[in-house]
Structures are given as C-alpha cells and as structure tokens.
Specification:
The protein is an alpha+beta fold. The protein has 3 helices and 7 strands, in the order E-H-E-E-E-E-E-H-H-E. The chain has a single domain, classed as Deoxyribonuclease I, Chain A (4-Layer Sandwich), CATH 3.60.10. About 15% of the residues lie in helices and about 30% in strands. Strand 5 and strand 6 form a beta hairpin.
Length: about 120
C-alpha cells in the first residue's frame, strides 16, 4: 500500500505508524513546511527489503522497497518550489531513469493536472 501526504515528521515515532503484519518504509518531508511525506506498507510474508536510489535526498519525497525482483516506489511530486526547488521535473526524471531497467511499480501523487491522458502530453 502506498501513501502520499502522510504529513509525518521526525516527531512521529515509527511505532505510531506501524500496522500489524506489515513492514513500513517511510520518507518524511525534511523541511518545516507542512504536508508531504510518503510511506509504503508491504505484507511481512513478502519479505520486502529497503531500496535506496542513488538520487536519495536529491528529490523531494520518495521511498522504495524491493519484493523479489519487483522494485516498488512511492513518490510525491510537490508543486511548492519553496520546498522542492525549480528543477523538480528533471530530478524526478533522474530517479525514473535510474530504475527504468528494473521491474518497477511506481505509485504516488505527481501533481500533473494538465496532462491530456488521451495524447500523453502536458
């Protein structure tokens, strides 16, 4: 299960977000701005492991884990340039390029309201 906009901060303990029978992977917003944050819950029996991208910390909120050969990611693409800076799109593309040679499931809130899904253009 992927969750965006957790609003979790370092003042919220892991134990407060635990779900019985699930392993949790989280990435909180690292600024004092409210909102943001992402979380993945994976059933314990699937034996998930944490996966760190090379671009960790270079892009807003994203978290990854691996289940077998499947890489699972949750991204939150904020439109708040005060939080993420001006090169938000290019940094997200770096992450997507990094994982593009793997079996991958990407979930999240990408905040692209003007995409024409019929033609795939913004």
């Amino acid at each position: 299960m992927g969750v965006t906009e957790t609003w979790a901060t370092d003042s919220i303990l892991d134990s407060e977000l635990d779900l019985e029978g699930y392993q949790k992977f989280r990435c909180d917003r690292q600024t004092c701005n409210r909102g943001g944050g992402v979380l993945i819950y994976v059933k314990d029996t699937l034996n998930p492991t944490e996966y760190q991208t090379k671009t960790l910390g270079l892009y807003g909120e994203h978290v990854w884990c691996q289940v077998g050969t499947l890489l699972i990611g949750v991204c939150y693409r904020s439109t708040n340039t005060a939080v993420v800076g001006q090169d938000n799109d290019s940094r997200l593309l770096e992450i997507l390029h990094e994982v593009s040679d793997k079996h991958v499931l990407i979930m999240g809130d990408f905040n692209y309201p003007n995409i024409d899904w019929a033609t795939w253009f913004r």
